[in-house]
Amino acid sequence: MLTATIDAFQTPLPIQFNTGDVVTLKEGGSRMTVTYAGPVALNPGDWLICEWFDEHGELRREMFSPASVRVEPRSIPAGSVLWNRMSRAA
After folding, report:
1. What InterPro entries does the record tag this protein with (predicted)?
2. I need a labelling partner for 25 at 20 to 30 A (CA). Which of 14, 47, 73, 79 fits?
C-alpha cells in the first residue's frame, strides 16, 4: 500500500535554462547570455556558462550554479540605454 503523497503545487519545479536565455545574478549585476546549460567535467550537477560585456566593453565568461541566477526578459526598455556612453559618428 502506498502511503506517501506528493503535492505538485507545493513542490516548486526547478527552472530549466536554455542556451540564449538572458539571466542576472540574484544579488545583482550585468545581464548575461547563457551559452551552455548542463553538466561540466569534474563538477557535480548542472551548471550555466554565461557571457556578458563588462563596464569596459570586454567580453567575460563564467560558470554559475542555476540557483544563483534569475531569468530576465530578452529585451530592455529604451529608457535604460545610456546614450552618453555610446560614441556616435559625426
Report:
1. DUF2158 (IPR019226)
2. 79
